[in-house]
Amino acid sequence: MKTNYLVKLSALILLFALSSCQENNLDEVSKKQGKLERQTKSSLKKKVLVVGFDGIQFEKIAGTSTPNLDKLKIVKGYAGGIDNTSSEQKTSSGPGWSTILTGVWVNKHGVTDNNTSHISKAKSVFQLIKESNSGLKTASVVTWGPIHDFFR
């Protein structure tokens, strides 16, 4: 099962690497690389990549030999809310990913289960980024398509 997630992660990273090259022409790519080398570090664009493994316990992956993943900054995510409070929610994909992508608990986003008739009442990080700067680019690649349905 872990191999399946590593294959998906590798494919995702490859996809992002390929999508950053707009031309297939190697000369154009070489020119871009040369231009980037001339830029100072402060002028380089900052980028973020969030990779989520749904259903894997952090402690299990942390205790396993994963040399390539160990090069990344992996932190534990918690998407279940606090027991016996208004933030308590199921740890199923719909509520969990809605919490991760909005930064608020179920009592604010309103996605209580995997039923895609629930639409998040809170804006996703993608919506917030576009509102703050429409020129920025965002992308979401998922293996469970209904994640996108919560943010119409």
Automatic annotation (TrEMBL):
Superkingdom classification of source: Bacteria
Keywords, alphabetical: Signal
Signal sequence range: 1-22
Classification via PROSITE patterns: PROKAR_LIPOPROTEIN
Alphabetized SUPFAM superfamilies for the sequence: Alkaline phosphatase-like (SSF53649)
Pfam families, alphabetized: Phosphodiest
Gene3D superfamilies on file: Alkaline Phosphatase, subunit A
Name of the protein described by the UniProt record: Type I phosphodiesterase/nucleotide pyrophosphatase
